[in-house]
Amino acid sequence: MTKADLLQRIIDTLSFDLDVAQRAAQTAYEAATAEENIAENKYDTLGLEASYLATGQARRMEEIRQARAAYQQLLLRDYDPQRGIQVSNLVTLEAENGTCQQLFLGPEGAGLKIGQGAQLVTVITPRSPLGQRLIGKVEEDEVSLVLGGVPQNYSILKVL
Prior knowledge:
Elements: H1 3-33, H2 46-73, E1 90-95, E2 100-105, E3 113-114, E4 121-124, H3 129-134, E5 142-147, E6 150-159
Parallel strand pairs: 2-4
Antiparallel strand pairs: 1-2, 1-6, 3-4, 5-6
């Protein structure tokens, strides 16, 4: 999968997620404003709970919308060893146990998983602990971090 293909799949996934979030927000809004959910006493909180849910869904929609816009404007750059790893680079890491993983360093959308099996690519951002350590590194560098009290070491095998 090329980086251009990956970028399009990220945008498509975010568009799908936005559509799902919009429908969920609409459903929550309808529940919050439904006449049958008007509180009859101080213990009747169904309408209030639905309004909290609608607010949360609206926030989630905005986050997805901003992430999608960031990817729609993203310029894919080739890896430059002089600058090291930057946003829009596709990085292949090898863990100490020999397992490999592909990471796309993107502006938003951390945690998105695109593809499956050997083609699985996980999106991370420069704000993540691993993303922070990858910025500026070059192929064959080592990256170490501690997550959940467990030290993890990786070798950078390839950067596109």
